[in-house]
Amino acid sequence: MDAVAASQMRVPRHAPGNGFLPAEAPLQMEPSPLHHVPAAQQAVSSGPGVALRRALIFAGTAGLTLAGCVKMYEVVEVGGVTVLEGMVLVLFSVLLAWIAFAFVSALAGFVVMFARRRDTIAIAIDGSLPDLSSRTAMLLPTYNEDPHAVMVRLRAMIESVAETGQADRFDWFLLSDTTDPDIWIGEEAAFLALREACGTARVYYRHRADNVARKAGNISEWVRRFGAAYDQMLILDADSLMSGATVVRLAYAMEHAPQAALIQTLPVIVNGASLFARLQQFAGRLYGPIIAAGNAWWYGAEGNYWGHNAIIRVEAFAQDAALPELRGRKPFGGHILSHDFIEAALMRRAGWGIYMTVDLDGSYEEVPPSLIDHAARDRRWCQGNLQHLAVLPARGLHWISRLHLLIGIGAYITAPLWFVFLVLGILISLQANFVRPEYFPKGFALFPSWPAQDPVLAAQVFGATLGLLFIPKLLALLIALVTRARRRGFGGGIRLCLAVIVETVLAALIAPSMMIFQSVAVIEILLGRDAGWQVQRRNDGGISRAEIMRKLALPTACGLVMAASAYAVSLPLLAWMSPVVAGLMLSIPIGLLTGSRRRGAGLFTTPEDTSPPPVLVRARELATTASPHTGAALLELQRHAGLRRQHLDALPARPLRKAGDIDVELTTARARLADATSVAQAVGFLSRRETMAVLNDRATLEQLAELPEA
User: Fold this and answer.
1) Which helix (H) or strand (E) holds 66?
2) Residues of the chain predicted below pLDDT 50
3) Is 290 helix (H, G, I), strand (E, B) or coil?
4) Which of 156, 167, 213, 664 is a plausible cystine mate for 162, CB 3.0–4.6 Å?
5) Distance between CA 253 and CA 246 in Å, rounded?
6) What is the pTM assigned to this prediction?
7) Quick one: DSSP state of residue 329?
């Protein structure tokens, strides 16, 4: 942040205004043209073994889909296939293929975990920690997050890496895109406290005034200025937590795999306080490994990137992963929101390997505390994934990379498809109930045609579909039950089985609401509505009852309409649709229940609860300490001269403006401040944008410092 911090780096030679120095011979990141294939930097191939695995996955998916479609055709073809029934059959085929693909991958994961096969890339997960020869930058981008919570996790990781004895191989960068003035100054205050607490650790802070391209632009800006000083960078999120041993083993794996551009870990969810978060934590911990193991088994060197808790070779990223700006207007045009998939695809296009590790523990994250917060984050992810439609035709992408993009798109497109599928089913039932059937078709016939569908066959198709959905859960449960350490980690076999039953019921009730939210998101995006860059709520008590009721009113209304339509046909149809109808009609009570605190902690126990890792224990201890400063930005600078001095030293020189080019916010702020007699009064005069303009202007801040506090 200042010249003292800069002097600790081996690369810097002089201190700029913001406390950071450009690396010597900085790497240049030019946007990767989507329709130009670069010369391959590496000759990475997954080999015939992985090709055979993929053939098995897709053959199994095709076989299950074909069998299901044949049976579904037999259900609807009685009396001839109508237009509505034809549409149902097409939708069923697409949706069944989606479910079958996930099922076959999970089945492969079960076999891999049962056979205890290792990752596709060699990582030393046992024994003493290896010695490192490379330098790694630990990057933590942040945007309007709680400064104290961010620094707590960052400090726990710094201390954990120091305990490995290889702290000199790591530099830490907090890359702020914060636009809230109070949080910005809170970050600087918390950073100074972190620097003091961490002693000799090389920790740096940079605030970006112009947060163009959001997180992707934040990281790219760091790569352009400092990337040449480091062999690899490990990307963190604001809620990320990683043990020092895991960080060291990842860096060592990159040193000994020159073909690898990226290694993605499997983050485990921790610190869930609400019932919704506990559900996500339990499900991710129990079912996540079997799904990830199956995917990694057939991914090979064509893995994917989830945007955090992954280590990346800086050379590969700088040369081949610069994102282009999509043509057109938002939400489809502009900067790519879900940048991670595209960055992985571009690096793989250039010949680098993209790997996923499942065996390596010590990687953690947190999740939104409520259904409403989860849906808000999902809205942004939906837009980012639908943007990938423009990237799919890009030349030179590996076909598995295109498949990753299609899977991301499908995760959201399938929601409205399910909704349409349900609506068509109701319409067909209404048609059968109110439209008189044609018993004697045109032409001569001795006997009437009875359009009676086989209820037993329909039940079999329904049951088989449910089996594809729930069998992976049972396989994951079986793995946990037969593995003593995992069984104990989940609180024992009886508690684990009971938790799976309750989680399955609650997940089934929550799923219809998410179907509505995702369907609305897809429609909004198709209509041109941009999601923006909203702050993610991470605490467990910030959502009101009124907000839950307001945002879950639409799913409730959809449930009432579906229930009334099904009841108009028959009670059996209503019974068939009861799982979906119940989830929608009960969405408000479910939202209130799952958003509450301290529910489910006993039942949904995970190994990180029964035996928390040291880095998690340390983070929780630090979380109980007091936050350094939490007041209004200008008041905090007035009260703490040292903080004000550090802030002023970190400000970059203001760029020269053309004649007639006026900074509206700063000009307005100066006019308002002319009447202020104290800093407290000045705080009341300024809007947030005007306060940000003042915080970026050294001269105005120095004038304010001459005023009394109150």
Assistant:
1) helix 47-76
2) 1-26, 40, 446-448, 450
3) helix
4) 167
5) 10
6) 0.91
7) S
